[in-house]
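Project standup — Tuesday

K.O.: blocked on the structure for the chain from last sprint. Re-posting the sequence here as requested.
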Amino acid sequence: MPSNVVVHRWESLELERVTEMISRKVVAAERQMLVQVYLKRGAHVPVHQHDSEQLTYVLQGALRMVIGGETVVVREGELVHIPARASHQTEALDDTFELELFSPVRTEWLSSRSGNGS
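H.V.: unblocked you, prediction finished:
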């Protein structure tokens, strides 16, 4: 295996508790990051925006999201695209497990290792 190849195992990554209702595991590369997010039913991520383009894929559960003023419900097996700098917020309608892909990397998540789950 070439020396620049890195294999990550989700089960060996630290689970970061963001709030009482939200936890995540983060894998970051140079230009993108993939995040496993666990939200308890009723968890709320307040309105925010960031320079990263975001893809959110719901593996289990359901989310109500308001993106640029439009409300959508994203369920298991569905994926939503959030453009860079779009204002958005999220509410977990069920206990939810999802993957989020960001490009470019949300460096504030790496430097602080804490935040509001957004």
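K.O.: great, moving the ticket to review. Helices lie at 107-112. The beta strands are 16-17, 22-28, 33-39, 44-48, 53-60, 62-67, 70-75, 79-82, 88-92, 96-103.
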